[in-house]
């Protein structure tokens, strides 16, 4: 009887309202069991104040979403409403006498923590994390004496942890991180017999870690980083041997690392950097055989690196930088087969290059900088390894760069500055095509000419060869270094004319100074009408152009290193943080889990409707099979993953790059979740993430029809690209971008490869989270390297180094031109040397060409109507790609113009 249902509901609601008005909160309803009737009133009040989606209008509150009742009496025992966008008042929940579980995490709740919650004597689980709750932690909360799990993290709470909470004798997990709590950690925490997890990082806590903590309970996770804690690390923490995660980074702890640390056979994660710890690293640390991360940088530790660390077979990261360690890197560390990062910079270490470390086949970062290592670099310095960062500057290495450097096929950064290296720069350096972040050989004694092979390093952004004795001319081949932004060849013995090459002439004169016989722009020394003069003169006109070409050549959608690595780092941080929260539970569950499956340490699905559909193990497993791969970039690989439910999601696997310390990580995760909520139909939404081992996976909706790039340029796809479809795609992208600008966000990588097409060819702009997370105006990160994809980068970027709203408009204009011409935006044979798509189109009138000669005839020749619309869109594209940023229209206007073109 479908028609009667609404009426039935209405009368029920009426009854409910009646009962809400007539019965006082908490009173016993005549018909129900104790608490049931009172719960009806409280639940109606909660519905009114909090308005959770899916609540009501029926009066049977036990049927509302996220509500669990006990028995038939209507007494509410659990409310689970995480991530519902709630912003109202939830104090009425305090009247639900039987409530054992209340989860309102990740909403937008503000005001204070209601002190009435303290009256809930059956409450065992309270999660109010990730809201905007302010004020003090109410002392009355101590009345909820059955609480076992209390999570108030990531709010704006202030004041001290009230002593009244000492009544919570059953606490097992206390999470209060990411607030503004002050005062000391109360001493009674050490007396809680069941405490397993204590997480209070990112507050303003002072005083000592409570003495005796860990003695009376099986403490597994202690995370107190980023506070102002003082005193020493109590040896009691390790006494019972249960500790698994210890994170105390960024405090003012002093004293030594307790010898008892070795009792914790399950200790996997130790991070105690940025404190005032002194004394030696105890040899017993080698008994903590499960150690995966050991980070103790920036302390005052002395003595040697204990050889016993070699017993920690799973050690992945060892960071002892900036201490006062002396001696050599023990040979036995070469047995650490899992080691990925060895960072010992800024100590007093010496001896020869620790060759044995090269036996760690998974080593990706080796940082020996700022020590006193000496002798030759080993010939087999890479030998097919995974080395990405080789940072050896500020040592006393001598001899030459071994030709074996050519084997470093994955190297992103090579820092050899301020050593005693000599000889010629070997031509093999040109084989290290992966070099991207920097090649820095400054302040050594290199001699001879610059190898022409440097020109093969077309991804390299920073080149510093200053302060050597390099002679000869600067080879013209260096113009192949298409990504160069910063160059320094000063203080050498170079001679002749500086080749005409954008990055050279755009540099300061100081980049070339101190070479007595060097001439030409940017030096003030004119080459005159001498041997170099003529060729120099003719090339001058192309100067501006060649720089654009430099930016414009490399393939589409190269997401630049710094951005992605930062994102990866953020996720690595999230991993650590989640690890502590999850590890304890996971460990227990591990026995039951199939041995083959990797252990997911953290995961979340933001979109509620998909929560049932997504299976994290399936996401992980999809990435193991090459046939699922749908795209591969330098820093991420995308896979198609089919869930057991049949749902298909896109899984982007970020390649682990660096676990640099990044501030504000909790906020960033929050931002990611928020982004999933802001949504616009033309933006790809993140739907979740999975973290395991060192891997971060970002989940997105799967868009069946690939990217605009493929549609335009894959021959197979090309025939599906008719004009109305392309125009509609253009309008979609414009709308997505306009929305982003409206919410004050600049996209960092507008290009056709980031335009995704769903099954009906609706277009969605992707890579939005990177833009949101790294939005410079939000202070999350500063953009210091190139941002965007070559060919789409606005000309002003070369000097502003900032991605702006008009810059986005330019990149969008390039996408329009790409649609109109079916040509790739970077160099095309047809454009001629030094010309990219934008230049080619803008110069058409000067060449005497008509728009027909520019637009793809397969589209424009089909009908007059199509041709007319294309001409209109071409005008929009020309406006968007105006050289002067101020002349470009706003995206809102662009949307209007495109819609007009479509309706004409
Ligand atoms: C809050 O902490 C509790 C107890 O430790 C935990 O079970 C819960 O997952 C945490 N909530 C969030 C959103 O991480
Ligand atoms: C934290 O509290 C202190 C005073 O207790 C206040 O000065 C500071 O502004 C607060 N910080 C934040 C981020 O709320
Ligand atoms: C550690 O710091 C405290 C003050 O915070 C000081 O009283 C104590 O002497 C210091 N201990 C050591 C070993 O430096
Ligand atoms: C190292 O890791 C593997 C896989 O996670 C585990 O099976 C092994 O027990 C670990 N080794 C130690 C010494 O903890
Ligand atoms: C080295 O890395 C590869 C790929 O990440 C991984 O499969 C392998 O298990 C690692 N080896 C060790 C010893 O950790
Ligand atoms: C180079 O690596 C191979 C394994 O990839 C190894 O067998 C060989 O001994 C290494 N060479 C040196 C000199 O270490
Ligand atoms: C290259 O290394 C030296 C140290 O030897 C450093 O001073 C300089 O800033 C580095 N150059 C660049 C461009 O980072
Ligand atoms: C620098 O290297 C040369 C040989 O290349 C050597 O003679 C000289 O002693 C070294 N200087 C220092 C300070 O190590």
Walk me through the structure.
- With 904 residues, this protein is an alpha/beta fold.
- Among the domains are: 328-541, Leucine-rich repeat, LRR (right-handed beta-alpha superhelix), CATH 3.80.10; 600-701, Phosphorylase Kinase, domain 1 (2-Layer Sandwich), CATH 3.30.200; 708-903, Transferase(Phosphotransferase), domain 1.
- It has a 19-stranded mixed beta sheet, sandwiched between helices.
- Helix 7 (561-590) crosses helix 9 (665-678), helix 12 runs antiparallel to helix 19 and helix 15 runs antiparallel to helix 18 (864-880).
- The chain starts with a helix and ends with a helix.
- 50% of the residues are buried.
- One 2-acetamido-2-deoxy-beta-D-glucopyranose (NAG) is lined by residues 337-338, 362.
Count of β-strands: 43
CATH topology of the domain at 328-541: Leucine-rich repeat, LRR (right-handed beta-alpha superhelix)
- Beta percentage is 15-25%
What is the alpha-carbon Rg in Å? 31 Å
Outline: flat
Q: Report how far the terminal alpha carbons are from each other.
A: 49 Å
Biggest pleated sheet: 19 strands, mixed
Fourth CATH level, the homologous superfamily of the domain at 328-541: Ribonuclease Inhibitor
By secondary-structure content and strand pairing, the structural class works out as alpha/beta
Give the low-pLDDT segments: 1-36, 530-568, 584-596, 656-665, 774-787
Write the layout of secondary structure elements.
Elements: H1 5-22, H2 36-50, E1 67-70, E2 75-80, E3 101-103, E4 125-127, E5 134-136, E6 149-151, E7 156-159, E8 173-175, E9 180-181, E10 197-199, E11 206-208, E12 221-223, E13 228-230, H3 236-239, E14 245-247, E15 269-271, E16 278-280, E17 293-295, E18 300-302, E19 317-319, E20 326-327, E21 341-343, E22 348-352, E23 365-367, E24 372-376, E25 389-391, E26 396-399, E27 413-415, E28 420-424, E29 438-440, E30 445-447, E31 462-464, E32 471-473, E33 486-488, E34 493-497, H4 502-505, E35 517-519, H5 533-539, H6 543-552, H7 561-590, E36 600-605, H8 616-622, E37 629-632, E38 636-642, E39 648-654, H9 665-678, E40 686-692, E41 695-701, H10 708-713, H11 715-718, H12 723-742, E42 755-757, E43 763-765, H13 768-773, H14 797-800, H15 805-821, H16 837-842, H17 857-860, H18 864-880, H19 891-903
Parallel strand pairs: 2-3, 3-4, 4-6, 5-7, 6-8, 7-9, 8-10, 10-12, 11-13, 12-14, 14-15, 15-17, 16-18, 17-19, 19-21, 20-22, 21-23, 22-24, 23-25, 24-26, 25-27, 26-28, 27-29, 28-30, 29-31, 31-33, 32-34, 34-35
Antiparallel strand pairs: 1-2, 36-40, 37-38, 38-39, 39-41, 40-41, 42-43
Helix pairs in contact: 1-2, 7-9, 12-15, 12-19, 15-18, 18-19
């Amino acid at each position: 009887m479908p028609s009667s249902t609404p009426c039935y509901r209405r009368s029920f609601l009426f009854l409910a309202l009646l009962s809400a008005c007539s019965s006082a909160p908490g009173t016993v309803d005549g018909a129900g069991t104790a608490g049931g009737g009172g719960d009806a009133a409280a639940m109606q009040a909660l519905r009114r104040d909090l308005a959770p989606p899916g609540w009501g209008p029926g009066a049977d509150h036990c049927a509302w979403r996220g509500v669990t009742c006990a028995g038939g009496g209507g007494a509410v025992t659990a409310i689970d409403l995480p991530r519902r966008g709630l912003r109202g008042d939830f104090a009425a929940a305090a009247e639900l006498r039987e409530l054992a579980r209340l989860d309102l995490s990740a909403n937008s709740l503000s005001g204070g923590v209601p002190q009435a919650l303290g009256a809930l004597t059956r409450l065992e689980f309270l999660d109010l994390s990730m809201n905007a709750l302010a004020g003090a932690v109410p002392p009355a909360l101590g009345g909820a004496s059955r609480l076992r799990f209390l999570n108030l993290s990531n709010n704006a709470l202030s004041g001290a942890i009230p002593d009244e909470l000492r009544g919570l004798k059953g606490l097992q997990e206390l999470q209060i991180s990411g607030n503004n709590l002050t005062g000391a950690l109360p001493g009674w925490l050490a007396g809680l017999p069941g405490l397993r997890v204590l997480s209070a990082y990112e507050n303003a806590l002072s005083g000592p870690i409570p003495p005796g903590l860990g003695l009376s309970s099986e403490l597994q996770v202690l995370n107190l980083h980023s506070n102002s804690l003082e005193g020493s690390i109590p040896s009691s923490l390790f006494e019972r041997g249960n500790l698994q995660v210890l994170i105390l980074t960024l405090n003012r702890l002093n004293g030594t690392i307790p010898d008892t640390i070795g009792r914790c056979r399950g200790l996997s994660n130790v991070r105690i950097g940025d404190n005032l710890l002194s004394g030696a690293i105890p040899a017993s640390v080698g008994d903590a055989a499960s150690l995966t991360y050991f980070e103790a940088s920036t302390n005052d530790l002395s003595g040697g690196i204990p050889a016993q660390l070699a017993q920690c077979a799973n050690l992945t990261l060892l960071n002892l930088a900036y201490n006062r360690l002396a001696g050599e890197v023990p040979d036995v560390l070469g047995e650490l087969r899992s080691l990925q990062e060895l960072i010992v910079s800024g100590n007093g270490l010496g001896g020869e290059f620790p060759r044995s470390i090269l036996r760690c086949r998974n080593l990706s970062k080796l940082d020996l900088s700022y020590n006193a290592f000496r002798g030759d670099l080993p010939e087999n310095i890479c030998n097919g390894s995974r080395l990405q960062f080789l940072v050896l500057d500020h040592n006393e290495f001598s001899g030459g760069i071994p030709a074996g450097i050519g084997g470093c096929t994955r190297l992103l950064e090579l820092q050899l500055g301020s050593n005693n290296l000599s000889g010629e720069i070997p031509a093999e350096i040109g084989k290290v095509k992966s070099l991207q972040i920097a090649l820095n050989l400054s302040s050594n004694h290199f001699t001879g000419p610059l190898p022409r092979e440097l020109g093969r390093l077309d991804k390299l952004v920073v080149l510093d060869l200053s302060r050597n004795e390099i002679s000869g001319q600067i080879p013209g081949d260096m113009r192949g270094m298409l990504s160069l932004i910063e160059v320094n060849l000063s203080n050498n013995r170079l001679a002749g004319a500086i080749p005409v090459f954008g990055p050279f002439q755009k540099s300061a004169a100081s980049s070339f100074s101190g070479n007595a016989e060097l001439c030409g722009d940017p030096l003030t020394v004119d080459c005159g009408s001498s041997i170099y003069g003529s060729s120099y003169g003719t090339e001058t006109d192309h100067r501006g152009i060649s720089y654009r070409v430099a930016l414009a050549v490399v393939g589409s959608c190269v997401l630049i290193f710094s951005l992605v690595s930062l994102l990866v780092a953020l996720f690595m941080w999230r991993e650590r943080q989640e690890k502590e929260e999850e590890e304890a539970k996971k460990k227990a569950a591990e026995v039951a889990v199939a041995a083959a499956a990797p252990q997911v340490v953290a995961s979340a699905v933001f979109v509620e409707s998909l929560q049932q559909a997504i299976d994290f193990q399936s996401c992980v497993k999809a990435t193991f099979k090459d046939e699922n791969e749908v795209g591969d970039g330098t820093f991420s690989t995308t896979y198609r993953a089919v869930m057991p439910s049949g749902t298909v999601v896109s899984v982007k696997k970020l390649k682990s790059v660096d676990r640099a310390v990044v501030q504000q990580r909790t906020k960033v995760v929050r931002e990611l979740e928020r982004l999933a909520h802001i949504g616009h139909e033309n933006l790809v939404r993140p739907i979740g993430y999975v973290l395991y081992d060192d891997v971060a996976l970002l989940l997105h909706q799967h868009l069946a029809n690939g990217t605009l790039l493929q549609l335009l340029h894959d021959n197979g796809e090309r025939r599906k690209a008719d004009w109305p479809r392309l125009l509609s795609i253009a309008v979609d992208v414009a709308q997505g971008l306009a929305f982003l600008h409206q919410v004050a966000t600049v996209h960092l990588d507008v290009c056709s490869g980031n335009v995704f097409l769903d099954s009906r060819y609706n277009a969605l702009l992707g890579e939005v989270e990177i833009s949101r997370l790294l939005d410079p105006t939000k202070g999350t990160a500063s953009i210091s390297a190139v941002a965007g994809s070559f060919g789409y980068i606005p000309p002003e970027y070369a000097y502003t180094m900032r991605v702006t709203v008009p810059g986005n408009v330019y990149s969008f204009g390039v996408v329009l031109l790409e649609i109109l011409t079916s040509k790739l935006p970077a160099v095309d044979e047809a454009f001629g040397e030094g010309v990219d798509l934008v230049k080619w189109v803008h110069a058409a009138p000067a060449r005497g060409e008509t728009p027909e000669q520019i637009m793809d005839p397969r589209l424009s020749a089909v009908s007059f109507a199509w041709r007319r619309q294309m001409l209109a869109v071409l005008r929009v594209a020309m406006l968007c790609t105006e050289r002067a940023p101020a002349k470009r229209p706003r995206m809102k206007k662009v949307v209007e113009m495109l819609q007009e073109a479509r309706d004409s």
